[in-house]
Amino acid sequence: MAAKTLIIDGKEVSAEEGATVLQVARDNGVKLPTLCHLEGVYDVGACRLCLVEIAGTTKLLPACTTKISEGMRITTDSDRLRKYRRMTIELLFAERNHVCAVCVSNGHCELQTLAYSLGMDHVRYDYIFPKWNVDLTHRMFGMDHNRCILCTRCVRVCWHIEGAGTKNVAGRGATSKIISDLNQPWGDSESCTECGKCVMACPTGALFNKGTTTGEMEHDRDKLEFIVNAREKQQWLP
Amino acid sequence: MKLRVATVWLGGCSGCHMSFLDMDEYLIELAGLIDLVYSPVIDVKEFPDQVDVCLIEGAVCNEDNLEILRKIRERTRVLVSFGDCAVTGNVPAMRNPFGDDNRTDVLQRAYIDNTQDNPGVPKADGIVPQLLERVVPVHEAVYVEYFLPGCPPPAARIQEILGQIVTGQTPKLTGPQLKFG
Amino acid sequence: MQLDDLNALVAKHVGARKKIVLRTCMSAGCMSSQADVIKKNLEAEVKAQGLEADVEVRRVGCMGFCGQGPLIGVDGLSAKEKLFEFVKPTDAPAIVGSLKGGACDVQAGNPDHPFFAKQMRIVRANGGIVDPERIEDYLAAGGYQALHQVLTEMQLAGVVEEITKSGLRGRGGAGFLTGLKWGTVAKSAGAKKYVVCNGDEGDPGAFMDRSVLESDPHLVLEGMAIAAYAVGADQGFLYVRAEYPLAIARLQTAIKQAKQLGLLGGGIFESPFNFNVDIRIGAGAFVCGEETALMASVEGKRGTPRPRPPFPAESGLWGCPTLINNVETFANITAIINRGGAWYAGIGTEKSKGTKVFALTGKIRNNGLIEVPMGIPLRQIVEEMGGGAPAGGQIKSVQTGGPSGGCIPAAYLDTPVDYESLTKLGSIMGSGGMVVMDDATNMVEIAKFYMEFCMEESCGKCIPCRTGTAQMFHLLEKITQRRGTARDLAKLEELCDMVRHTSLCGLGQTAPNPVASTLKFFRAEYEALLQPDPHGPRANGSVKTAEAVTP
Questions:
Q1: What is the mean pLDDT of residues A59-66?
Q2: Can you give the pLDDT at residue A223?
Q3: Cα separation, B24 vs B26, whole angstroms
Q4: How distant is the Cα of A127 from the closest Cα of chain C, in angstroms?
Q5: Contact between C408 and C444 (Cβ < 8 Å)
Q6: Which of A63, A222, B25, C349 is deepest in the core (most CB within 10 A)?
Q7: What CATH number is given to the structural domain containing C48?
Q8: Contacts of C58 (CB under 8 A, 6+ apart)
Q9: A60 to chain C: which residues are within 8 Å by CB?
Q10: Per residue in A10-24, pLDDT tens?
């Protein structure tokens, strides 16, 4: 495959044709915040945190779904991008009930980590405090919609790694909701194989193993990439 | 002149103040640098005038919280939201999702449904303050200059920000020092 | 079927026509006022008054003057009146009687009214004239001649060239050059290609596409067939929202009739060209008007947009090159083929060619559908054709482009209606909704209305649109309820910028427009609602105090 030369944050780098801006950035030690991206499943460009500036276009483009091209000049960090990223995180915190102090994922949460690494000391928007329930009908796992950021990682791993197709999105806008089968209690799902990949994939405390309490839920997100590499490339690398 | 510092405890668990006390020997050093003019840990009844810095623990939950907060804002140069309840509403705000009747519902649950002896909502006008319709973080009620998140903020984090304040720097926390929870 | 056979069919159909035609509008608007009963009564009355030999009652599509409906048009020498307005089912005897010179107190319309006279009808040429449920009527009006010409006389590239020459731009709102889009799909490699017609018209106050589909379905089908030939596709999808049942029914009839005559399906006009069209019905999501969401919906998936590139022209339905155009864009095609790209390019302005259909509604005397040449000053539309604001009112603003557009203040009424001029004013051409507002209108409420619409119609996929619109709506609610402060207004403006630049699709990217444009032109109305901060200028003071609660 042909190599392409491009410039990320002033640094000249080369990469394989077909690679995404996000891959190239990470291969070259450039940190980009992401929430919906997960190694092992395809990208959807939904969280808008990895937006970058690309010379020649006025639009900001998501690094995860934008393919590189020869001579591309990419800026991954600017005052404007930092401001938008912080606003995005603030909007998420105001949207549902993310009470870090009593969350199963406290200390192991991608949203929490991103918030402080982006310098969020408080949320300027009024909290919406919507009413969401917690689905504890499944034998092994729980789903707390209060903590869900609708990144759809669980949906994608369920369909494309496990192939079960249990998880899906219902509703519209802020009332969108991750559902099991046709919006049944998770415990009643006949398609769920109880593989737990959705739980592994979750960036926050929305999906958790039953029995875990505050701060105890550590998601094994790297496992998914391992499974995909083992399956597709026959590589059994840790 | 030493900085006139106050701390106040609104709708919170006092954990932030416990963490404050966890600064241990730094408290002695601090005592030489500031005048603590109002705090749950000293016996002053009325919030004084001309306070330089006030650390506010807890969310704004009832009429009393709101009233004192407004008084504090008028009499204080710099407010610091102290801990997650003040910064986000945190646990006290978990009644908000229960909607418009959340006040009635939580009082019913706490004082009637879950009690065996003498069920009844405490009611004494002028003594027991009314709950607000919604619990809000401090900055939704008054302007707040600086934020010190954490549940509770670890002693080192409190020391960091106080150290910055007493040495005349602009308080600024970065990275994991800003972690909620 | 060969052209000769078709012409014979047309000749027979035309020969059977009667001297006098009562054209009864049976578009959704007039139908909602019992147009179907009116037609039945007219037919019975024609029989009762013994006029069957000379008079026919014809079902036709939308005549455009919807605010005056139900409408009856009269063709034929002995007719005294040419147009009846506000017709009721009980008016049938008087109307039929008037054909014999009888007295008639049904309100007579004026076909020379500026509302009609200033129009230039290309897309809507057949609207209110042909029977949308009879292909013979469309054929008699010159229908499917363009498709025949394309299939027998033109090269693929020639068709694209003609469309390019016409300067036609996408009528869905964004105004992308149609010829360029067709050329890209034509050049995209792929054994299978698709043509998709976007009929998911969802802007509040817009009903142009519904009217075209209801009044002249074959025009759109023919346009799609020509497009399919030009880009090398053999399958088309017509995506129509479920809220348009009449349009769907007429399209189904039209497709069936076209297939029977060999104008759709295999070997059209006995050429090697095959083209099938299937209807896909939208389930009510506004976002499915966005092309990538629409395609996801056609594929049977949840209707959410995806990032572009890749554009549909490269990778659309099931990964195949796909041409997707709006109803009105396709409805322009036959005229361009019949009369030439150069003719079309002669209409309009330098950068905006041809005509545009608008749904003129709101605080205005004359409501309805109009088709005007591009570049016409807004004032002519609103004041001359629309007749200005109803008694006592003054026009304050004109909203174009629906929830993606903006409010143009009355001071700019001399602006020519073209893509660039409207964009310069912070609005957009959009799909054709034009809502007139008078001086009683509160512009902050208007902004809130559109923001609520966007919030509810956000698909929920990307964060800025899903929750940014919710916060903007919340801020607007606070301001309109007189609980907002200058800080809230600043936050609103900051969110406008953020949601515009970070949202995934057009819905989110344009959602701030109604707020931004009203802020630009009517800022004082916002400021008048702001409250001083009770605790110093910097406090945000949004807390509501409690009332006593006793469980």
A1: 96
A2: 86
A3: 5
A4: 9
A5: no
A6: A63
A7: 3.40.30.10
A8: C21, C22, C23, C24, C131
A9: 501-502
A10: 999 999 999 999 999
pLDDT tens digit sequence for B47-70: 999 999 999 999 999 999 999 999
Task: State the pLDDT at residue B125.
Answer: 87
Query: Measured on CA atoms in the order C483, C485, C491, C493, is the torsion positive or negative?
Result: positive
- For residue A215, the chain B residues in CB contact (below 8 A) are 181
Q: Examine residue A33 and state whether it is found in any structural domain, yes or no.
A: yes
Q: Would you say how long chain B is, in residues?
A: 181
Chain A residues touching C459 at Cβ < 8 A: 172-173, 176
CB contact under 8 A, C544 and B123: no
Task: Indicate yes or no: CB of A169 within 8 angstroms of CB of C460.
Answer: yes
Q: For the structural domain made of B3-94+130-178, what CATH number should be given?
A: 3.40.50.700
Task: Give contacts of A95 with chain C, Cβ < 8 Å.
Answer: 466-467, 470
- The rounded Cα C363 to chain-centroid distance in angstroms is 19
Same domain, C157 and C210: yes
A108 and A174 fall within a common domain: yes
Same domain, C400 and C457: no
C542 occurs within a structural domain: no
Average pLDDT of chain A to the nearest whole number: 95
| Closest CA of chain B from C189, distance in Å | 50
Q: C interface mutation test: which of A52, A60, A91 has the most C CBs within 10 A?
A: A91
Contact between chains at B97 and A127 (C-beta distance less than 8 A): no
Torsion from C-alpha of C211, C431, C343, C141, nearest 10 degrees: -10
Q: Are residues C94 and C192 in the same domain?
A: no
Taking an 8 Å cut-off on Cβ atoms, the answer to whether B136 and C542 are in contact is yes
Short-list A117, C458, C508, C187, CA closest to B175 = A117
Angle at C341 between CA C336 and CA C343, to 5 degrees: 90
* Domain map (residue ranges) of chain B: 3-94+130-178
- Say whether both C317 and C373 belong to one domain: no
Helices C443-457, C513-529: axis angle to 10 degrees equals 140
Asked whether A209 and A199 are in contact (CB, 8 A), the reply is yes
- A99 and A144 share one domain: yes
pLDDT at A225 over 90: no
Please report residues of B whose CB lies closer than 8 A to that of C542: 136, 140-141
Does residue C46 fall inside a structural domain? yes
**Range of A10's domain?**
3-77
Residue A73 sits in the same domain as residue A107: no
CATH number of the domain bearing residue A140: 3.30.70.20
3-state secondary structure of A73: strand
The total number of structural domains that make up chain A = 2
Does residue C518 fall inside a structural domain?
yes
The range of the structural domain enclosing residue C429 comes to 355-439
- Single out the residue in A27, A59, A77 at which a domain terminates: A77
Contact B173 A132 (CB under 8 A): no
pTM: 0.94
Is the model's pLDDT at C371 over the cut of 90? yes
How close, in Å, is residue A92 to chain B by CA atoms?
13
Residues of C in contact with A175 (CB under 8 A): 460
Determine, for residues C474 and A88 on separate chains, whether the beta-carbon distance falls below 8 Å: no
A185 and A96 share one domain: yes
The per-residue pLDDT of chain B, averaged, comes to 94
Strands (E), C389-484: 395-400, 406-409, 433-438
Please report which residue ranges of chain A form alpha helices under DSSP H. 21-27, 79-95, 110-117, 153-157, 197-201, 222-233
| Domain stops at, among C111, C128, C161 | C111
Neighbours of chain A (3+ CB pairs under 8 A): B, C
For C391-419, what is the mean pLDDT?
94
- What confidence tier does C541 reach under pLDDT thresholds 50, 70, 90? very low
Identity of the residue in A47, A124, A126 whose CB atom sits nearest the CB atom of C463 = A47
Residues A115 and A34 in one domain: no
